[in-house]
Design goal:
Distance between the termini: 70 Å
Oligomer: single chain
Largest sheet: 3 strands, antiparallel
Order of helices and strands: HHHEEHHHEEEHEEHH
Strand content: 5-15%
Strand order of the largest sheet: 5-6-7
Structural class: mainly alpha
Helix content: 40-55%
Length: 270
């Protein structure tokens, strides 16, 4: 008996489902319970591992991939319109709070750098693509320009947030905490750290690889609302041609957009 290509593909699909699971909701619940049990056992086992002990790269990579897959599954159910009995899923509690209180996502209410902080941008971007969320002017930079904000990538074997700048000062503080040294904390982004350097992880569109871009970022005297501060920001933008900088893999792109970093949401360049 001859088998057509489509019939062969269907047989393969059915065999994969036998091995990998079913597509019904009860099976998904069962899989999630197993994942939860496995995660709890892993967390318990990690409590017995010294914090300064390095884990195998293959292990941490698999964990990062698994976490990414779980995020995608969650996002599909919460934001992509997965339906039950023809009724679409509701918005996340965080986004509903923003909408009810007329707070643009450019003023993200979650702690910067937290999972909820990134998830909010990702949710709004997905809804906007589906035509279900109309962006305010102040939100366009975070959703349309920094198109990977809320996404994650792998850099040197670790999972990193994309399009989200960090001050080197913050990295030094974390390292000091890890080594048990006392550090004096300041307001993030409010003062110059060394030479005011910051860094950001970006995805290179051509290669698809994640790159680390370092740049100057600290301009405390120009971040106020005074006429002098606004004039200084405008002069900086004109002098450095900020409006023409479109390549996220270049330091100049990020230096020109420091008004949008570290909790700031200031109109204009720099």
């Amino acid at each position: 008996m001859k088998i057509t290509k489509s019939q062969l593909l269907e047989i393969i699909r059915e065999e994969i489902l036998k091995e990998a699971g079913h597509t019904d909701v009860p099976s998904s619940r069962s899989d999630l319970l197993t994942i939860g049990e496995d995660a709890a056992e892993i967390l318990q086992a990690l409590q017995m591992v010294p914090e300064d002990q390095a884990l195998p790269t293959w292990w941490t990579n698999k964990l990062a991939v698994a976490a990414s897959h779980m995020n995608a599954c969650r996002d599909y159910l919460l934001t992509s319109g997965a339906k039950t009995e023809g009724v679409e899923r509701t918005l996340s509690e965080g986004l509903q709070h923003h909408i009810d209180n007329k707070i643009p996502v450019s003023q993200n209410v979650f702690r910067p750098g937290s999972e909820s902080f990134f998830a909010l941008f990702k949710e709004v971007r997905e809804l906007h693509k589906q035509g279900k969320y109309e962006l305010q002017e102040s939100e366009k930079y975070y959703i349309l320009e920094t198109t990977d904000l809320g996404e994650w990538g792998m850099f040197e074997g670790r999972k990193v947030p994309l399009d989200y700048p960090f001050l080197y000062e913050d990295e030094e503080i974390e390292e000091a905490k890890y080594k048990g040294r006392e550090v004096k904390l300041g307001a993030p982004g409010a003062k110059r750290s060394g030479d005011g350097r910051a860094y950001v992880f970006v995805r290179d569109k051509q290669s698809g690889n994640v790159r680390k871009v370092s740049f100057g970022s600290s301009m405390p005297d120009a971040m106020g609302d005074s006429e002098a501060a606004r004039k200084r920001r405008k002069n900086f933008g004109d002098r450095h041609g900020c409006a023409k900088k479109k390549d996220k893999t270049k330091a100049g792109y990020w230096a020109c957009r420091a008004t949008k970093m570290f909790g700031r949401d200031i109109p204009g360049w720099w």
